[in-house]
Amino acid sequence: MSLQPFFLWMQEHAFSAYILNETWFSPIVQVMHLIALAVFAGAILVVDLRLLGVGLTRVPLAKVSEDAMPWMVWGLVALLITGWPSVMSTAMKQYYSPFFWWKMELLVLGLIFAFTVRRRLASMDEAKLGPVWPKAAGMFSIAVWTGVAVGARLIGLLS
Amino acid sequence: MRSWFEWVGAMESSVALRESLNAYPIMLTSHVIGMCMFAGLIMMMDLRLAGVGNLNSSITQVQQRLFPWQMVGFTISIVTGLLLLWSDPMRFYSNFYFWTKNLLLILAGLNMWYFHATTYQTVDQWDNDPSPPFGAKVAGVLSIAFAG
Question: Does A58 touch chain B (CB under 8 A)?
Answer without folding.
Answer: yes
